[in-house]
Amino acid sequence: MTAQLYIDGTWTDALKGDTRQTRNPATGEVIAEYAAGSPADVDKAVAAARRAFDEGPWGPDSSPRERATILFRAAEILRRDREKLAELETRDNGKLYSDALEDVDESAFMFEYYAGWTTKVLGSIPPVGPDAMSLIVKEPVGVAALITPWNYPVLMASQKIAPALATGCTAILKPASPTPLSSLELARILDEAGLPPGVFNVLNGPGSSVGDALVTHPGVDKISFTGSDEVG
User: Which of 89, 91, 95, 106 is surrounded by the most beta carbons within 10 Å?
Assistant: First the structure.
């Protein structure tokens, strides 16, 4: 099995051609060789996410109903493919198959839950006196970098991706190096659900290059990180 990066709606090799291996922790067997990105790939993914946010089809002018429809579809596909995805998660991560099934089911719920929120992120008009009006408007923040740990790959990614997309942000996901495969499946699922190119991107690779480049990139507006205190 060979796994690539997912950038701007396209599966692609790393620009420098670097690859890494992911292994079944129970047997040591190589499951897949995957493309390992670099700061150059980060630039490419940020440009795609930035364009999708600033120029559309996502961002502040996108339709909440259309966002909801895509997220609901993603939940349906997750449930349809739950056994396949749970098996992949178990082989890549080492957790019990029964636990992996629960993680996939909870991931589907995450997409469903936040799909329902797309039309309910409302502003307010706080009272400020008879001679003035104050409006509070909630808007998407922009491009979000999402960095996940190895222990709950598909679930932790879903907990970050779903709210980001629901609120109109575009996103770049960097999964943990030992467990990238289910995150790449989420890219496939969202593509099948009809997510436009550039809105969601996945960059495999080490935190020392891909992670650092993401969190210091001037084109990234929001960072969501879950991991060890040392890496944090």
Answer: 89
